[in-house]
Each structure stands twice: as structure tokens, then as C-alpha cells.
Amino acid sequence: MTALAHPIAGTGSDRxxxxxxxxxxxxxxxxxxxxxxxxxxxxxxxxGVRLPMRGNSRSTxxxxxxxxxxxxxxxxxxxxxxxxxxxxxxxxxxxxxxxxSDRRPSETRYVEARExxxxxxxVARGVQDVRVLEAMRxxxxxxxxxxxxxxxxxxxxxxxxGEQQTISQPYIVAIMTELAKLDATSRVLEVGTGSxxxxxxxxxxxxxxxxxxxxxxxxxxxxxLLPRLGYGEIQLREGDGYQGWPDAAPFDxxxxxxxxxEVPEPLIEQLVVGGRLVVPVGRWNQQLVVLTKSETxxxxxxxxxxxxxxxxxxxxxxx
Length: 319
Hints:
The protein is an alpha/beta fold. The chain is built from nine helices and eleven strands. Helix 4 (about 105-120) packs antiparallel against helix 5 (about 130-140) and helix 5 crosses helix 7.
């Protein structure tokens, strides 16, 4: 289905309605405009500031590298507000300038980037489950994004993965996994495979993982990628996740990576007693919600505001 999530908690917004970076890190103006241009395809003059372009004597390699750095940070947030505008074809950033870190072996850089991601984005925000943190350290997130996006794979935001869909922000993947309260024997269903990253993280923590994807191209890609990376035990299905996976039910947990306007009743029915459904709910004002099934009904806990793409398929039909 999709994997776009953008938590509102902990961020502010600028006059375009775009989030400001955490801990007061404001983007350099050139990088901000570059990211704005990349996603919305607006010429610089429409933003009201003249930016040195390639070929201009003022556009030095250092300046272009600085622009690219901040654009890489801002593109995920712009993608969250307009994923169609930030598809794969839109992200043609200026050529990168080789740095000392770029010359290190790629895998070493990625391992270090994952460590920083866990420490600065997850632990710092309160993710505590040791098994979830280890899973986030282990799963190679850069393998689940297009090659041109790999340098930004461990940044603090979602990234486009094609088909107008995205891979969720690392923090959202981690917190949803933690909220599911999984152990090594858990059976878990994911509604919305996307690139397969969330499913891979779940496989590191749970016993059995089932995942449904409504976009055929993404389902096929995940079916090829996951076994190659050692996650061949994940059971995948192409189809509408609104009805869940009745043949494989019941589940100890269900995670939904797109926002329905209301909670799909079939998913609650497919939980065991004590099972947890982690789902973003709402059209415009969305909340990440955890529903726990009990003998007498369902307990509902609101976690925080989020921004996911809408759930598609049967849920969109008039009732």
C-alpha cells in the first residue's frame, strides 16, 4: 500500500506549512530553495530569491555540496506533503561533490549511519525496546530505497520509493513496531508492504510476518528484494488489505501503514484476545492509534498526530 508517515509531534512549521528540523536546526536558504524547486518544480524567482544556478560563476562545488546537503534533509518532508510531485523522476539533484566520508567503503558508512540513526532519532525520542533498536541497527534501510536516494536513507524523514509511495521515517517504523509489543513467537500482519522495510524490521522481532500490498509493482519488487536480503520467510500477498488476511488469522498484532478514515472492522476481528492493532486513523487530522482487543471489547489509545497517505481500495467505496 504505502509507507509514508510524518509525525507532527516535535516539529514546527514554516510559512509554506513545511516542518522545521528538530532541535532548531534551520536549513540553509539555498538548500531550502533547492528542495522546494525539486519537489514543486517552481523556478527560483517564484520563491522571491535568486539562487546561483549551475554554470553561474558564483555556483562553486562547495556551494552545490551545501545545497545538496540541505536539500537531502528537506526533500523527505516535501515528499510527505506532495508525494506525487516528489516521485523518482523529480529528484534530479545537482551532482554531488566527493567528500572524505564518500571515499570510505559504502557498507562501513551505512553501518555508521544506522548507528547514528538509532542513537539520534530513536533512543533520543524515547524508543526503549532493545529488540526493536537492534532490528533498526540490523536492517539495511538503504537497500529499500532507489539507488539515487541511498545517501539519504538514514535521514530523519520518509523517502520516495516510486509509484507515488514512500518509505516511512525511521522513527515511525520503530515506534509502530514497539507499540505492537511483539516477541519471538508473535504472528504479525502488515497492511501496506511498500518497499518491504517495515516487514523486514518486523521479521527481526517477531516469529511470523505476513504482509499485503495493493500496488502490484511494489508487491513484485518486495517479493524479489526481501528474499535477496535474507527475509524470505516473510509471506507476501498482493491485494487489498482492508479485509486483512483471513486465511492466516488470528494475529497477535496488525500494523497498518496507510490511514483509513475509520478503523477497518475486519482487522479487529482477526486479532487474538490481547492482540494490538497499530493504525493511523483520519482523513486530514490523523492520529496514530493502538487498539487492544479484550474479552469485552476494544481499548483505544491515541499516541500522537501523524501524516500518512490515505488507505486505498475498498475503504474508499461509499458505504
